[in-house]
C-alpha cells in the first residue's frame, strides 16, 4: 500500500481529507493523520473561547472516519525528509511515501524580553483554554493588554469587551491606524466600535518588554493584570528544524506544486508555507485543493501541469462581538450586522461540510 501521511489536523489537511475520502481514493493508498488532539480545532474561533463567549465544544469538529484512514495522537518532534520518516515524542516512527506538513504556527515574540514567559496565547486550543481561565478569573477593574491589532487581536478585544464589560482593555497596535493596509472606511468603523465600547487602542506602539504585571511601550511603563500576545507568528519547531530554504519569516519555500524543491514527496500546507499571502484558513484550503490535484497526478503516473492556477482569495471576515462585524470582499468594504451574519454563515457552512 502507498502511504500518505498528514501532519496536523488543521484547515489544509482537513480539506485534503474531505476531497480524498469522499471521491475516488485509489485502492492502493492509505492515509495516516497525526495530531496532538483527536479532533479538528477551529482556530479562527479561538478568540471567542479565550474570551468565554463560546464553549470548548463549539470550536471542535470531529475527525472523519474511513476504513483507510488511521489517526495517531502524538507530539511530532522531528521530520526527516532524507529518511522519509516522522518521529514522535513517544518514540513512534512513521514512514511515508508522500507527506503533507500542516503543523501550523506558534507565537513570534520578536525577541521581546519577557514576552514568552509573561503573556498568554490563543495559538492552540490548549493555550486558549489557559487564557480563558486567566481572563475570566480577573477581578472587576483589572487591566488586560492585547499586543497586536491584527484580526486576532481585534476579535479578541471586542469579544472580551462583551464578555467582561468590567475590565479595562488596551489594544496595542504598531501602526498609526487599525488595519492600515485596507480602506480607511474599514479602519474607521473598527476604531469607532472600540471608542464606543471603551476599548483603548494604543497606536504607534512598540512593546520593548513584558513583565508579570507590566508592559513597556517605548519608554512608558504600563501596569497590567494580564497580557495576551497576538503580534505575529512563526513556524513550529519541527518545521523550523527542517534543512530547507526558508523566507525571512521562517516559512518554507516551495516549488509551484507546494513541494519541497529537494524532496518532491513532501508538501507543505498552511501557515508554514512561504506564499505571497498572509497566513489564513482560506489560503490553507486553497493550497490543499491544489495539493490534492498534484497527488492524483502523481498516483496516476501522469506528468504534472506546467503551471498551477493562481490562488485567488475572496477577502476576509472579522467580528466585533456577536452583533457587529467587518469584511473586505472583492475589493469592497462591508460593515455592521451584515458582515457579522456573513461570518456566522461561513462558519456554519464549514462545520456542516466537515460533519
TrEMBL record:
Residues 3-288 form the FAD/NAD(P)-binding domain. Its EC number is 1.6.99.3. Gene3D superfamilies: 3.50.50.100. Its cofactor is FAD. Keywords: FAD, Flavoprotein, Oxidoreductase. One of its GO terms (molecular function) is NAD(P)H dehydrogenase (quinone) activity. One of its GO terms (biological process) is aerobic electron transport chain. InterPro entries: FAD/NAD-bd_sf, FAD/NAD-binding_dom, NADH-Q_oxidoreductase. Belongs to the NADH dehydrogenase family. PANTHER family: 64 KDA MITOCHONDRIAL NADH DEHYDROGENASE (EUROFUNG) (PTHR42913:SF3), APOPTOSIS-INDUCING FACTOR 1 (PTHR42913). This is NADH dehydrogenase. It comes from Sporosarcina limicola.
